[in-house]
Input
Amino acid sequence: MTGLPLVTVGITCFNASETIERALASALAQDWPSIEVVVADDCSTDGSAEIVNRRIAGLANVRLLRHELNRGPGAARNTILQAAAGEFVAFFDDDDESMPNRISAQMRRLLAYEGETGARLVACYASGERRYPNGYTMPLQAIGSIPGEEPAGNMMADYLLFFRRVPGRFYGTGVPSCALLARTSTFAAVGGFDSTLRRVEDVDLAIRLAFADAHFIGTAEKVFVQHATDAPDKSPAANLIAAERLAEKNKAYLAGVRRYYYARHWPRLRYWHFMRDYPRMVLELVGLLLHNPIPGASHFLATGPRRLLHERAMRRRRNGSTSFPS
Output
C-alpha cells in the first residue's frame, strides 16, 4: 500500500487501432504509484478492443469494458465513472499520449489548491501541446495554470457560453476532457457527462460544474500531447449541431443575461468560416454586432486574428517552411 489515493485513469476508445496501444502505454507508465486503468471501448469495429485485450493480459490493475452499441464519448466516460474505484478520475483520449508525470503533476496541483482555498469542487486540467499530422505544433496552456488567476463559478459559465472574460483570470485553452482530472465526487455532483451530446460534452460538463461553483485550475507543466486527428464526428457540422444544443440547454440563463442570440449565432459564424462561405460568415457577424456590439467586436478581435495566424502557420508547414508565427 502506498498511502496515496487511488486514481482511475479512464481511456475512451473508438476505432483507434492505430493509436490505442500508445495511449494505453502512457497510462501504464504513470509514476503515480496508486492507479488503475479502465478502458471503455465504444463498440469499435477495427479490432481496437482486441489490441487492448492483448496488451493488458496478466495486468491486475487494468480493465476493458465494451459497449455493445456505439453510444458516444459522453456515454463512454460515464461508463468509466460508474466503474471507477479511484477517489480521483483522469481522462485520457485514445489518440493522445501523456507524460509519465501527468497524474502526479495534476494531483499535486489539485491537492495543494484544495488545501489553500478550501474549494469543494475542483477540476484540474493538464497543460500540453497539440501536434498536427503535418508536423505543426501548438502549445496548450491549461486553464487556471497561473496561480491566483483560476476562474470559478458563473464567470466560467459566461466564458464558455458567450466568451465573457473577467480580468485577472486565465482561461487558457479551454476545458478538454482529455486533459481533465478531478475527484470522482466532483463528477457525481453534476451527474457526470450528458451522453446525448456527441460533441462539446466536455464544455457542457464544465458549464454545469461552473453553475455548481466549481474552480478550474491547471498544471504549469506540459504533461500530455494531443494528436490532432480527423473523424466524421469532429466535422464543422457536428460541432455546430452540438453547440446549438448547448445554447438550448442553457436558454433560460442566456436569455436572462441577454446572450441567447449570441450563444446561438457565434457557432454559426465559426461554421461558415470553416466551410469558407465568407458572405454568410459576414452576415452572422453583422447580426452579432447588431445584437451585442461591444461583446461581438471584442470576441471577434480577440479570436479572429489568432485563428488566421494559426491557419497561416498550418499552410506554411504544409509548404515546407519551418518559420511559424508565435
Observations:
- The mean pLDDT is 92.
- The CA atoms of residues 74 and 195 lie 4 Å apart.
- The two ends are 46 Å apart (CA to CA).
